[in-house]
Design brief:
The structure is a homodimer. Chain A has about 450 residues and is an alpha/beta fold. Chain A folds into three domains: about 15-140, NAD(P)-binding Rossmann-like Domain (Rossmann fold), CATH 3.40.50.720; about 150-310, Dihydrodipicolinate Reductase, domain 2 (2-Layer Sandwich), CATH 3.30.360; about 355-435, 2-Layer Sandwich (Alpha-Beta Plaits), CATH 3.30.70. The first copy, chain A, has helices spanning about 25-35, 35-45, 95-105, 115-135, 150-155, 170-185, 185-195, 205-210, 210-225, 245-250, 315-330, 370-380, 410-420, and strands at about 15-20, 45-55, 70, 85-90, 110-115, 135-140, 160-170, 235, 255-265, 270-280, 290-300, 305-310, 355, 360-365, 385-395, 400-405, 410, 430-435. In chain A, the strands form four sheets. In chain A, strands 3-2-1-4-5-6 form a six-stranded parallel sheet, sandwiched between helices. A six-stranded mixed sheet of chain A has the order 8-10-9-7-11-12. The first copy, chain A, has a four-stranded antiparallel sheet with strand order 15-16-14-18, sandwiched between helices. In chain A, strand 15 and strand 16 (about 400-405) form a beta hairpin. The longest helix of chain A has 18 residues, at about 115-135.
Chain lengths: ~450, ~450
């Protein structure tokens, strides 16, 4: 038997089973239907949905599922003889999704998923299983929705040592921050609007506390640094503390506030954090509007790559899921994380507490003699040099002080703020946001 | 014999022959050397340069070519028994580059090239040969330099019907236009600066007349629309007619002037043009600074994707070339143009003369009674509706009139301008620039 040629010759369709028929699952079915002819040309063979798994078979999803076999138990898809490859869009790090992934790989069936929580938590184990069975494990849709960021960085930038990769990986947060920015909304008003528009859940913590972005970042970092995923190593801080005042002050300084997911190599150790940062207004991330996602990767030969697009939604997510399916149909895929799991580096964690860089600091202080001196002394004693400072008189005996430090050790700045918080100069907890170096 | 597994197991290096040791060729050698260990992990095997072809073996290129075999005749690389795959960075649509491509494919050797002129002109014939021999033909570096736009659109957006793809594909022109914009330079001054910095050749026509961008566009269109390349079908107009005045007037209207390469499906026909256009200041292309390239693709499920990065230079171009080599080493590649050449559509050409859209028109007119009426009447008689008009008094009996039309048939607007040009109202040829619809 000779190896298959690289121009697909197969006339046998690839038969897909889809687990989960929510927004994304329905989108995948609709995409495969609407673009069927084009996809068959590009994949070299037809792609057919032969089975689905969802709890409620009676609900009208506006898609045609006439000839498709229904399973109530998603795991049964793995053993359906009419399913060649399994697509999982149920979600959740464990439970049914994980069982289905394990069962599919055990049954020798390629597995395509949009499940960032599962890949961040169990990607290494699943990739090892896929590798042992020599079948595809694909998860383009798990990071940055419709933007083919895994493809572009895993394969398109494969010649580069990536120095750092970072971006806006949560559209809900970006919607909130840009709404606060462009229309001077309060955080609460912007969040309420995001919820009303369906961009944020009733319980928004998964998005606005940075958890969702941390899962995506861990996957992206593994791809870019040829490293084992380490989602527990991501320092996470959400956007709840950001006020309209911060947005305004940052703007006056020439910055935008964005929830930045950052992975960076520092002396052989991996720094990973998700936290609100100031980015220069002229940085590409400063222009990313509304719900969009964007990723910047800096390679030692390619320089800076910037990719922007829809990070969520049924259409964009289905686009990424089906791109993976087409790769499977074409038999064009390699190891899930660019190389054998055993060859990936287990990188030590960089000390996020001692990152060196400029900081934005916002203080609400008592409007009395000597407060400015207390702040200046605390900074001086911590060895922190101040680049700029603005004091604005407030109401009710309070004033606002906004300062920007020169590049300093984060721990030193936090130490100075702790010192201040122990005195009576501050009337509210201080806020420190890193300023992203360009 | 069983097919090879998808996790590369080969310990045999992939041996590369490089034709051309100018900036890009030297960059490829340096990249393969500097990132050798990482590339070997990602490719699953070492990639070694075993032979090169260049006219002058004595020139110091700052790269280590100690153990490498030298050929004076590039075509000899195809038959060097120590070369598994050939990289061509000589350039030129025909001549040695084309001979080498043909000889490599005839010898059954994968062929990687950065040669946009050759792929635009001969891509179909070369792809058919590669397909018949079941070997790789790759040209990521031919479009948008280091941005992995072929990879991202061919594979990452493969599930989508692309509605249009467009962007900034010539960094030299973007440098000139953005220098005129940010520093109010004249066209000649900006061109001279580009030449002094090495961004433009002594004979700059290939860049500033839009030829280079037209080659890239023809390749991009073929990839996105699953169509045969049609470089002769690209309407091309360069940036020589753009004045500092146009940049300023466009800015006042909320637009930037960019050399736009556009490919769009219009009722089953393919519209392709390269020409200066106005883009809204808030459009992502409006922010692309200096020498960068950027591509926008609009898919029917993914929505708008935006990719930006370095479009030229040795590092970025080498990054794209080596990404292709890694795909070859991994045995992860498919048909050069996403499907068998015989399956590609031969699309009819859309009539670029009748594109409907807004236009920017700049007129230098005689400053006398009745001129404004003549212009208004010419527009009215051609059925062109005017959205806005500014007249500015000039010196020497001349005035400047800038007008923006409502969406109109391009031929109607051009007809009105022809009518005016036949009278004596205009003291210089009129300029019409399309305004890009968002």
């Amino acid at each position: 038997m000779t190896p298959p040629p690289h121009v697909p010759q197969s006339t046998r369709p690839l038969r897909i089973g889809i687990a989960g028929l929510g927004t994304v699952g329905s989108g995948v079915v609709r995409l495969l239907d609407e673009n069927a002819a084009l996809i068959a040309r590009r994949a070299g063979r037809a792609i057919e949905v032969t089975a689905v798994a969802a709890r409620d078979a009676t609900r009208d999803r506006g898609i045609n599922l006439g000839a498709v076999r229904w399973h109530r138990d998603a795991v049964a898809l793995a053993n359906d003889p009419d399913v060649d490859a399994v697509v999982e869009v149920i979600g959740g790090a464990d439970g049914v999704a994980l069982e289905l992934a394990q069962a599919s790989l055990a049954a020798g069936k390629p597995f395509v998923t949009a499940n960032k929580a599962m890949i961040a938590a169990h990607g290494m184990a699943l990739a090892a299983r896929a590798e042992a069975a020599d079948i595809a494990l694909k998860f383009e849709a798990a990071v940055a929705g419709g933007i083919p960021v895994i493809k572009a960085l895993r394969e398109g930038a494969s010649a580069n040592r990536i120095e750092r990769v970072y971006g806006i990986l949560n559209g809900t947060c970006n919607f909130i921050l840009t709404a606060m920015e462009s229309r001077a909304l309060s955080f609460d008003a912007a969040l309420a609007e995001a919820q009303a528009l369906g961009y944020a859940e009733a319980d928004p913590g998964f998005d606005i506390d940075g958890v969702d972005a941390s899962h995506k970042l861990a996957i992206l970092a593994a791809i870019c640094f040829s490293a084992r995923t380490d989602v527990a190593g991501v320092t996470v801080e959400g956007i709840r503390a950001i006020s309209a005042e911060d947005i305004k002050e940052a703007d006056a300084l020439g910055y935008r506030i964005r929830l930045i997911a950052m992975a960076e190599m520092q002396n052989g150790a991996l720094l990973q954090y998700v936290r609100p940062c100031l980015v220069a207004a002229e940085h590409p991330l400063g222009y990313v509007p509304g719900c969009l996602n964007a990723v910047v990767a800096e390679g030692n030969f390619v320089g800076r790559l910037f990719l922007e697009g829809a990070g969520a939604g049924d259409g964009p997510t289905a686009s990424a899921v089906v791109a993976d399916i087409i790769d499977v149909a074409r038999d064009e895929y390699g190891p899930a994380f660019t190389m054998a799991v055993g060859a990936l580096d287990a990188l030590p964690r960089a000390d996020v507490g001692h990152v060196v860089g400029k900081s934005y600091i916002r203080l609400h202080v008592a409007d009395r003699t000597g407060v400015l001196a207390e702040i200046a002394i605390a900074m001086r004693d911590a060895g922190v040099s101040v680049e700029s400072l603005i004091q604005r008189g407030g109401t009710g005996g309070e004033a606002l002080i906004v300062l920007v430090t020169h590049a300093s050790d984060a721990a030193a700045v936090d130490g100075a703020l702790d010192t201040l918080a122990q005195g009576d100069a501050l009337v509210a907890p201080p806020l420190r946001l890193p300023i992203l170096a360009l």
